[in-house]
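Milestone M4 deliverable, item 7.
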Amino acid sequence: MSAILPVFATGTVRQRVHWSERIAHAALAAVVLALLAFLAAPLAAILTQSVEGSEGEFVGLRNFIAYASTPALLDSLWNSLWVSGLVTVITIPLAFGFAYALTRSRMWGKPLFRGITLIPLLAPSLLSAISLIYWFGNQGAAKGLLQALGFDEIYGAPGIVIAQVIATFPHALMILVTSLRAADARLYEAADAMGTSAARKFVTITLPGAKYGLISAALVVFTLVVTDFGIPKVIGGNFNMLATDVFKLVIGQQDFQRGAVVAILLLAPAVLTFAVDHFVGRKHTAMLTARAVPYRARRVPWFDALMFGYCALVALLVLAMMAMAVFASFASFWPYNLQPSLRHYRMGIDDAEVGTAFVSSLTMAAGTALAGTALVFLGAYLLEKTQGSRALHAAVRLLAMLPMAVPGLVLGLGYIFFFNSPGNPLGFLYATMGILVVNTVAHFYTVGHLTATTALKQIDPEFESVSASLKVPIWRTFTRVTTPICLPSILDIAIYLFVNAMTTVSSVIFLYSPDTKLASVAAVNIEEAGTTAAAAALCVVIVLTSAAVKVAHLLADRFLLDRLQAWRRR
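Output delivered:
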């Protein structure tokens, strides 16, 4: 007798999604909307403006053709390209030599030299230009040396090149130090066993291993130079570049159409460099494997002495640039009365406009650090620790990397077109402190995002799995587990956003109002008015403020985090 087996109805089994997961997906969608509104939409507004006429009608490529027929603007394009190329050619070898000394020698004073060369990161880029004016300007302390080298004056291309080398050097150095540290000692041991010369080891092992770092550093330097506004504005003289042309067209002539065209030209090199970097990164093979042995430099007295001399020379040049700005800010009346005084600093205190600008900078930097860190870390967490919603994940990944390819000057111009357009529900942000905060967060979003995702990838997914099995809401895991573990990275993001908000010029030059003028912008305006010493004093105050915040960050890392994360020592 055959048994009669019950027949069960088949159907799709739906897995019940916890309500906290639905909230997480909604929050991720909100992050996507924020990035679309504050990043993608302004860029789309620039593209739209470039193909429209003065009355809003569609004109196609007429604006681009008109630009191509203007010799002065084409000269600016050529100037931007060859100056950026020259600065890159000079900066990369200098930075590579310095990074090589830091990573492949046993010389004395590595932390000191590294700290000195990072000082320009704490200052607006125009500070190096101001220092050059005091060194080699019309009344410079070493103008005779400049003439002996065959230059009539520092204004124009010579000053821009030198100032840009100083300003971009620390950016290239950080990339190259990271690249040279990732070396496998076994390769060098094998080369030594075969009797390979030092020169051949350098060519066959060191350079190929650092190839990606060299390319990335070169692309970063080129992009920074071609899109920088502060240095050519201060020391450029009659030497025009694309960044200054955008400012003249938009602010001076109110020619928004041609301004949009120039903005697209500024965007093109940045996008190209980003694409090249992405392509090279995909072709790059890892130098360190699981069995790799970290490279440790051996003590070679003559080589260590040579590297010490080179680093001391570079550090001395950086200090000379920075020290001259400090000295000039304290001089009573350059160059006739060099007695130290606080005249130029009191000028800033007595001048309500300058004092208000500094307070506005602090407010903007604090707002950027708080709001930006929250948005960046929340977006990275939702991206890395939530399941499903592939479309949202892909959108966040794309939009988070987009700011790396967008110059600050272009983004600021896009904000004018987008937020100032009639009928925009976000138009209430225009000419407020809010738009400065949003713009700065969008401009520096990528680095913070990469920092956050790197920290989150180091956390075992087991925490989220256990929480899900225990029906613990995702927000509780986020606040009690993830955030404490990632606290060092969160502080790094906050400090990065704060310092860049204090020193940025190009990203906010179009957006400030009389009530929201920033200290970095005030320094540009003061220098343009002829009060260079007061501008130097204001830049020094910005440097000291950024340095104080950085020191506070280091103290927090050393004392506060050691107590909050004592579990790391178990």
